[in-house]
Amino acid sequence: MNALLTSAVAGLTAGGTYALLGVCAVFTYRLVAVVNFTGAAIGTAGTFVLIALFEAGFPIWPSVLAGIAAGTATGVAVGYVMTRWFGEASASTKAAVTVALLVGLIAVGLRLTGGQHPHNMPELFPGSAFRLAGVEVTIASVLTIGLAVLFTILSDLFLNRTKIGLNLRALADRPMAAELLGVRVQLLSLLVWGMTGAFTTFALMIIAPQRSPNFMTLSLLVVPALAAALIGVFRSFWWTLAGGIALGIVEGLASSIDSVSQYRSAIPFLVVLAVLLWSQREARWDEAR
Amino acid sequence: MSRLVVSNLSINRAELPVVTSVDLVAESGAISVVLGANGAGKTTLLEGLSGIIPVAGGTIAIDGRELQKARPGARSREGLAHVEQGRTVFRQLTTEENLRVSLHPGADIAEAYALFPELVQRRAVKASLLSGGEQQMLVIARALLTRPKVLLIDEMSAGLAPVIVTRLMTAVRKLADDGLAVVLVEQFAALALSIGNRAYVMRRGRVVHDGDCARLRQSPDELHRLYLGGAESAVPA
């Protein structure tokens, strides 16, 4: 029993990251109507700037800031491509473009970071925060979940209480109508891409030491992130948050069961499949009638 | 006094000319009515003026400032407002939130409610739940809050009951009387001519008539000919 609890708690760090990446995916989808497959790759780019600077002997916290700035810039660059050339494209076209950009980012990232070459990733927040039922809960777990909750609350407040948030909601609904009213559509879109880039980068910096920190592995964290976003039906920040954390816990539990631990990376795919089937149940029912 | 001057304007869609060599003027206090059969190029003309689609040639100027290369947002900030056809409310926002999106410095939401008091009691209702007439009022009121010099309105009567259309036409006339320059694209020719000052009739992307609204209203046969082809009369205003 204690082993199971230990495994579940161990999954919290990953869960917090999935939740934050998922909430960022929902934020991007709701405001600029893009299912963004590059989310984790953007954060990975920033994370590897931190690694490069740290390995070159720079102090850690200035390197963290430089990494976040690089993640933000990468997000803005991807956003610029999407708004400049694909602003009026369909949702499926936009999603396909982000898949192409993901492949491009991974290719360039692997080339620049030496592929599978091991890196010295600094642990930003080592140690234990507290004990829960006899199990150590790491500071990294508390931080990633805290960051995900903070981003969720801030997103809600920002969208519902500020003029920029109101303009973003209008932009998400009818981009051209918003632009015709003088809303600075391109600037606001880039703001969304930059904000999600910054938060994603920081989350990946926290989780990277616990994963094999190569460009491909971190970039593909977009899969559980989109699974979490799907649990929130790409609308609800809070359901996405809960979905991401639950996904991490389930993955943690699976790792402690020998017969399923080797398949635990398939869990997000099963969740995606289950949610899609569940969402189609009414159509199936109607068809059957 | 503001003045929109459109000279020799041409607009293509998918490489094909849809609007060709159009000249048009709209002045403060007046309504320029643009008429024509379906496919004449009226909506394309307005979309080119507001920057939704790029122009292939010619100039668009408000008070001498050329805008043909500016993005739609920049044209809005220069005083050009476009009420698109199809009642493009922000569906997930309330009436009041729709108005707040367009609120430019110096504008007051009270002006929108003064123009359309019907919207006051619907201020907290989601725009998607408003009636067609209320949605049309909302998009016109929303455009007003951008502090425009020139207001382009496309097919505002489509799908609305005659009593609502009359209500909207009265409001548009009031906006012109208050000093706005209005360009009104409309299918209901008689109603539009009754509130307009200057009439343009388009056929196959060209202006085939430019004249006084009152004169054209008194000559339904001529209007009919202009719509369907045959006698082309470029009557100077």
Order of strands, widest sheet of chain A: 1-2
Number of domains of chain B: 1
Helix content of chain B: 25-40%
| Number of β-strand runs of chain B | 10
Structure description:
Chain A: It is a multi-pass membrane protein. Chain A: It is found in: Cell membrane. Chain A: Belongs to the binding-protein-dependent transport system permease family. LivHM subfamily. Chain A: Keywords: Amino-acid transport, Cell membrane, Membrane, Transmembrane, Transmembrane helix, Transport. The complex is a heterodimer of chains A (289) and B (237). Chain A is mainly alpha-helical and 289 residues long. Chain A has one domain. Chain A contains 14 helices and 2 strands; from the N terminus they run H-H-H-H-E-E-H-H-H-H-H-H-H-H-H-H. In chain A, helix 1 packs antiparallel against helix 8, helix 1 packs antiparallel against helix 11 and helix 2 runs antiparallel to helix 3. The radius of gyration of chain A is 19 Å and the shape is globular. With 237 residues, chain B is an alpha/beta fold. Chain B has one domain: P-loop containing nucleotide triphosphate hydrolases (Rossmann fold, 3-Layer(aba) Sandwich), CATH 3.40.50.300. In chain B, the strands form 2 sheets. Chain B has a 6-stranded mixed β-sheet with strand order 6-7-8-3-9-10, with helices on both faces. Chain B has a 4-stranded antiparallel β-sheet with strand order 2-1-4-5, with helices on one face. In chain B, helix 3 runs parallel beside helix 5 and helix 4 crosses helix 5. Chain B is globular. The two termini of chain B are 19 Å apart. The C terminus of chain B is likely disordered. At the A-B interface, helix 6 and helix 7 of A face helix 2 and helix 3 of B.
Topology, element by element:
The complex is a heterodimer of chains A (289) and B (237).
Chain A: H1 2-32, H2 39-55, H3 60-86, H4 91-113, E1 128-132, E2 135-138, H5 139-161, H6 163-173, H7 175-180, H8 185-207, H9 215-219, H10 222-231, H11 237-255, H12 258-261, H13 267-279, H14 281-288
Chain B: E1 3-13, E2 16-27, E3 31-35, H1 42-50, E4 57-62, E5 65-66, H2 72-77, E6 80-83, H3 95-102, H4 109-115, H5 132-144, E7 150-154, H6 162-177, E8 181-185, H7 189-195, E9 198-203, E10 206-212, H8 213-217, H9 220-228
Parallel strand pairs in B: 3-8, 3-9, 6-7, 7-8
Antiparallel strand pairs in B: 1-2, 1-4, 4-5, 9-10
